[in-house]
Amino acid sequence: MSYKIAIASGKGGTGKTTVSVNLFKGFNELRGKKVQLVDCDVEEPNDALFFCDAEVVDVQEVSQMVPVIDSEKCTFCRKCVEYCEFNAIVVLPPVPFAEINPSLCHSCGACSVACEDGAITEHPKPIGTLNFYKTDENNGLVEGKLKIGSTMQTMLIRELKKAIPGINDIIIYDAPPGTSCPVVETIHDVNYLILVAEPTLFGLHDLKLMVALVRELGLEFGVVINKVGLGDNAIYDYLDKERIEVLGKIPFDKEYASLYAVGEITGIIPDAIHQSYTEILDVLNQKITHHEGNNRIKW
Amino acid sequence: MKEITVLSGKGGTGKTSITAALASIAGKAVFCDNDVDAADLHLIFQPDIQEVFPFSSGTKASINSMECTNCGICMDHCRFDAIDYNNEGTLVIDPYQCEGCRLCERVCPEEAISAVENTNNQWFVSTSRFGDFVHAEMGPGEENSGKLVSQIRKKAMEIAKNTQSDYIINDGPPGIGCATISSISGSNAVLVIIEPTISGFNDAQRLVELIRLFNIPTYAVINKYDINLTMTKNIEEYLIFENIDLLAKIPFDVEMVKSMTLGKTIIEYNPTSIISGQIQEIWNKIKVSQDVVLQ
Questions:
Q1: Are B264 and B225 part of one and the same domain?
Q2: What is the CATH number of domain A3-51+135-298?
Q3: What is the pLDDT of residue A299?
Q4: Which tens digits make up the pLDDT trace of B263-280?
Q5: Any idea where the domains of chain A sit in the sequence?
Q6: Exposure string (b/e) for B67-100, b if CB count within 10 Å is 16 or more?
Q7: ipTM computed for the complex
Q8: What pTM, to 2 d.p., does this model score?
Q9: What is the average pLDDT across A15-34?
Q10: Cβ-based contacts of A50 with chain B (< 8 Å)
Q11: Cα-atom radius of gyration of chain B, to the nearest Å?
Q12: What one-character DSSP code corresponds to residue B264?
């Protein structure tokens, strides 16, 4: 069984992608095991930007099934309207008129079940693509990329997670920002969750929202504090009080931020930042070894 | 009355800091925090809540195990992988996967499934030192943030009409999904805050492509422009090509972070700073060009 790690944060721009990519590269070097990076921020996937030599090996289109009503067969009974919980269907018997609004449709299939006249058929509507990259001999990156204008980000994440290629020792999910359904879809089944937080007023507030979610989901988690040196000390007091595991503290470095800006985050890492990643990787490795040990005992 | 929405694609580019700064000088305006997932604007506004409303994000299915025969018909129909057998061989619903379509409830021959309303979200109408403020708080892991955004924007519009306000300013969510689409739709103008990083630029381009579908006037601000001057130059060229007005290039300044830490806008913290002057300039330019549109 793969060991699954998700990298999340309530607030955007705290450093999820930077941490995800650095951990992925760190695992590659440290363990010689098969690692897969999965970019679940399907609205704005960016992991691939940090692999200048990554090669696209496959692209798969993902579609949602959108129903269409054949008004020749429709008896305008309105049962589909009654079944649709998303107000996506309009049927006006006097006109007579029957239509489905694809932008409100969740593709649940309820209308197809409702229709007794065989008037509803479902047709694929593209919602995005899954892009598979090869980053080196053994390891790879796969990203979901939402089609612009689509609102089906959660469905795309679900399909992305089903499509992860090969048998992997470690899978890293780079989560979208926020605390709602796309985040839950990404993190709900992981072995360990890393929350990337920054020591600012907004950073602390959004971290608290994430901690509430993660505790409700019952996930094991720890925090990486990024941009240490900016903001104030409130976040440290909070983490201490809540007895939350701190995996590492990454100092803020304007020069490094400038390198990040052009996609170079793994080449020239300042010593202090490199040290932080080494520590984080050590902690994660212990957790993975422990997990593998447990699996062996079960076996 | 004009409704202006602040967006960015990428998170953490400075939407909320800049929206708050604009609030300091916007005059007669209503403010609305559309980032309902991780709302932060209230930390600066420190609002006095006047009214609280519950928001139902839909329903979740629940199986009554006393009546369920574990036949699996519901599981076969569920397209969200939300129903499965647990270790004891009993069918259970994963509430985080359930989208509330209620199909399982309708196909269950035993009538063992019912829908439970989610009311784990609320939204507020508040007053603040900047003016009326509509904001929300989503329960952890809730869905339908797009619907909640539409709801609070409707209220902000109603308040703006009643108070004869000149502007509504929306602090938008990151991304380009359902919440962002709800946030753009019907706005008079969008202000895109771009960070000069490869991901900030990439995300802004996807956002601009989305805004184009709505054909709404778009302005841009490059925030923390001195983090990487080459990237800033690339973005400037892109904006010219796309015919988007670049209203300001704001430098990276720890004063901005400091002001936020104290719960103040940059204008309140240091009204004579360079950034404060730039915020004023951004607002003047938006006002002038929106007035032209009006005529």
A1: yes
A2: 3.40.50.300
A3: 42
A4: 999 999 999 999 999 999
A5: 3-51+135-298, 63-125
A6: ebeeeeebbebbbbebbeeeeeeebbbbebbbbb
A7: 0.92
A8: 0.93
A9: 88
A10: 198
A11: 22
A12: -
